[in-house]
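Our consortium's second objective concerns turning raw sequence data into structural hypotheses that experimental partners can test. To show how far this objective has progressed, the report includes one record in full. It was chosen at random from the queue rather than selected for favorable results. The single chain below, 189 residues long, was entered without modification.
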Amino acid sequence: MDELEDDDLGEDYDPRLLFLYQYLSRTVKFKVDKWHKMMATEDYKAMVMNFINRPTEEKLIITLTSAGVLQPSTNFPVSSKSKSSYFIRRRPEPLTAANVRQLLMFGDISPKPIDELAVLIEEVYFPMLTSPVNTESWPRPLVEDISRRVTELKDVIYKVKGQVYGQTILTMPPNVNLINKEEEKILRG
């Protein structure tokens, strides 16, 4: 994507707002008119400006609604069908053009966080914490305990995911991959 310039928002635009705009336009993918509409709505503008100007304002969450409107909030969405972006102050200090990147934590919130958590546990933490390469220097009881606990966490995540979607999801036994390996051995003779 092309680098966004001050020209997109007008000359003399507050660099702190420019930072928010640039981040949002890259992650949420919207046109500048959506930003202008948000800033033209007094309540929305006040919320954004309070976050920018008041060190006591801890967080700002901006969602592109299904109606195509950028909607700021000071609370995380309970449920959303759209991706949101968050900006959280690390410390209650004034936000300046020079410290905006260091002072703010920023990122995106998925409309389906439980799915992302399940993938994170299954595809990142579980393999990392149960890999023999990563655990070779650990005592055997520790490896077994961590493996059991990560498996329990994975099972809980899948049960919660099933409850959220109104489905019954049965968890797989911890060593299900060994069944596939044994099957391959049997088939080879």
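The partners drew two points from this record. The longest strand covers residues 59-64. Helices lie at 15-27, 32-40, 42-53, 100-103, 113-130, 132-135, 140-164, 176-188. Both points have been shared with the crystallography group to help prioritize constructs.
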